[in-house]
Fold:
Amino acid sequence: MSNLHIVTDSAASLPQEAVAGLPLSILPMWVQAADQSLREGIDIDSAGLYELLRRGALPTTSQPAPGNFLDVFKPLVEQGKTIIAVLVTARASGTCASARIAADMLPAGAVTVFDSATTAMGTGLQALAAAEAARAGKTLPEIMEKLVELRDGIKVHIAVPTLQHLRRSGRVSQAQALLAGLLNIKVVLTTENGLVVVGEKARSWQGAINNVEARIIEAGKAGALIVAIHHTDIPEQAQELYARLQGKLDIAHGYVSELSASLAVHGGPGMLGAAFCSAHLFDS
Structure:
């Protein structure tokens, strides 16, 4: 059995069924609500976050502290494990920095921190591929090479029904949010060079969804895909999108996942999108 173990953060939005049986641990991000600090997936889940938002709360998020990483890393290292930490983009979060501080407290080479340069299941797919490769007996250099390929090949597109939550969290300006509201503009977020940016704009919600769907279908013309559909509080729409895609392209493996609470804070309920890549990049 391989001594390699993968650690990711809860922003990766991994469904539990995808993690079962893999050498993969998930470290919770923090959600701050009033005077409470809540660990995602332990003290609060996405449903709990939506309830806070409905009550008018203004929650924020923060990355795990170095001590939180050390609590996960140290027992694994003591068991003889070598760790690859596949984490949310360093250009939008201090999570990688916290992990590196913790890694420096352990023997040299015990922990390798990898910046996924993306978020949501864009990060999650990288962590899954690394864990499957570790289970298959691949070496640390082989897995790191695979992660670089995946980082370059994974695309993430998420349609957002309103910019109000993004405005409150500082992801877009008040003027942008106001203009979008007046013109009924819907946006599709994507990741570019590690930053979450507005990729496309549409004049209707269906137009935004069509944009996401068209991008996936276009990518599928080159061959089979790995596809992860994710959403915030609209599971039926997510399942419908996945079903439509199944009829239009070859999905080698697919997931439907609720976006993590730490991401839903920024976009609010009603988001729908996907992370996807060529299936050959996922082969261990």
About this structure: Residues 4-152 form a domain with the Rossmann fold fold (CATH 3.40.50.10170). The first strand starts at residue 4 and ends at 9.
